[in-house]
Amino acid sequence: MHLNTLEPVEKVLWDSKVDKGNIYEIILVGGSTRIPRIEPNKSISLDEAVTYGAAIQTAILSSDTSEKTQDLLLLDVTPPPLGIKTAGGVMTPLIKRNTTVLTKKSKIFSTYQDNQPGVLIQVYEGELGYVRDNNLLSKFDLTSIPPASHGVPQVEVTFDIDTNNILNVPASDKTTGKLNRITITNDNGSLLKEEIERMVNKAEKYKGNDVHALNLCPESPQFRQLESFFKGVFITLVHRQGRKKIRVSHSRP
Questions:
Q1: DSSP per-residue codes, 122-184
Q2: Residue from 122, 83, 123 nearest 99 by CA
Q3: Are 92 and 131 in contact (CB under 8 A)?
Q4: Integer Cα distance of 226 and 228 in angstroms
């Protein structure tokens, strides 16, 4: 039980990027913290600490102008990472976990096939490397992309979270200016706190597997290098064999 209380403390320190040497005292609240081995400084009332914190948060959210709260800053953050599905079913994050709201991030993507007329933007939240293990929030299409070789069109996807924690996702074709967007609110099937914690633990457990698998994804540098190598081998064989037929079989994950 004592060791279990250290896990959330270590997580907070890691996320906040604060060294433990800069922490003077930690106050844990909740039923289990009343166990003598865990209970903090008895000069502090745990019930009063919770009430005091809730009162401060209420004052800040209601725009209270009291001198006691004017120097306090309340920051809202995004719980899990937010991103989109890319080739191979990979979860490509645009906004990392614990990013402060309000925030705006953009990234350029492209097509996966030649003459692809449109792209499907699928918005996910979650900690794992593949979207199959994460939570789908919403999706929409961006169509009327001019014919071009794969990798040539430039599609800019933006994640914009406002002060009300509402996520706006516009996607535009940089060539034509064609634009489509979607708005995602908290009632769009977002994960519950317990689900987020479970997903974080699962991500840590299978992190090694995801890294290994992502290295073989069609969009990864490792895969591209391997593909270029085999193309070079194929060209060399063609030159050596002249006009003889060479049968090549390959597949992409």
A1: EEEE-SSSBGGGSEEEEEEEE--PPP--TT-S-EEEEEEE-TT--EEEEEEETTT--EEEEEE
A2: 83
A3: no
A4: 5
The candidate with the shortest Cα–Cα distance to 184, out of 78, 100, 86, 96, is: 78
* C-alpha–C-alpha distance, residues 61 and 77, integer Å: 15
Contact present, 82 and 159 (Cβ < 8 Å): yes
Burial 110-145 (b: 16+ CB within 10 A, else e): bbeeeebebbebbbbbbbbbbbebbbebbeeebeeb
Which tokens hold the place of 127? 């900690």
Q: Quick check: 211 and 169 in contact, CB under 8 A?
A: no
**Amino acid making up residue 191:** L
pLDDT tens digits, 51-98: 877 887 788 777 777 777 777 776 777 878 899 999 889 999 999 888
Segment (H or E) for 253: none
Q: How far, in Å, are 79, 103, 105, 107, 186 from residue 168 at the CA level?
A: 17, 11, 11, 14, 12
Q: Note whether 61 and 74 are within 8 A (CB).
A: yes
136-162 pLDDT per residue, tens:
999 999 999 999 998 899 999 999 998
Q: What distances in angstroms separate CA 14 from CA 88, 100, 172, 186, 194, one per listed residue?
A: 30, 15, 36, 26, 20
The pTM of this model reads 0.60
